[in-house]
Predict the 3D structure of the following.
Amino acid sequence: MTYSVPKVAGEVEVDVGRDQNRAQWPLWEVFIRQKRGLSHVHVGSLHAPDSETALLSARDVYTRRVEGISIWVVASTDITASDPDDADAFFESIEKPYRHATHYEIPDEVGQM
Amino acid sequence: MSTEALNHGDDNLVIAQRLAEWVSRGPDLETDIALGNIALDHLGVARALLSHASENDGGHEDDLAMLRSEREFTNLLLCEQPNGDFAQTIARQFLFDAYQLGLWDSLSKDTDVTIAGVAAKALLEARYHFRFSSSWVIRLGDGTAVSRRRMEAGLSQVWRFVDELFEQYPDLRPAWDRRVDDVLTEATLIRPTDPFQRRGGRDGFHTEHLGHLLAEMQSTARAHPGVSW
């Protein structure tokens, strides 16, 4: 189906391919809490020019088939991530039983902790 | 046959078909999906209303959608206008969404229980659609010089179909004006005027665009009459 696109006086054609940096919108990470979920989960990322558009896009792209109850969008540049190559040094080995309170018995009145 | 159900069913069917033309042609992935989602929302409303419209005749929603000619379609002229560029599509959607907000709110109190039910659900969808379309009107209007000119051009193209929206529901006009003006102000756009308002959709008198739209939409069903999908 073809349709005519109105020409606008003085418009300059931008070659998007040549300058990716200028054409690229910022990247946002998307976290969604589902209706049946307990916390926000990272579901993916998207490009958007600003936070409101990022929010609407996240709703359109990531809650099509699953009912969401809350969406967070965070600019990717605001996220500081640990280095995966450094993981074995950065994270504790679990073989440190002296860090756990395994010998303490929780009274029934307290319930699940 | 319920005229009201038929009219609003046709509005939503035709605009759904228009938005579907954007699928795989969107300016970016997220917008492509967004327009597809909005199209599906409209289509869902169309199906519910056309089913309801054909109930008493023992007919079927598919027959209404696929076998009627353009003289039998009762949709508003605004809905059948071509997509043009993204700005024109947004202009058409924005004006229609502002109308549907008032319409569904009013129809959710309709005496016809089916229509009231459809309207209540459609109102929630219309609130999202309006947020999406007005958000783009603002960004394109208050954007670059090029985006502003395209947004102005888009609104001018479809402004001649505004009065027809309120022929059956004149009470909805003041709230629509306020809603639209608030967004145009934030978008730093001037409200268009067009003294040559077009009408006739409800009576089956359409612009030249509907014929092409129906030919494309109905061609497969008409090529295989009676087939079940």
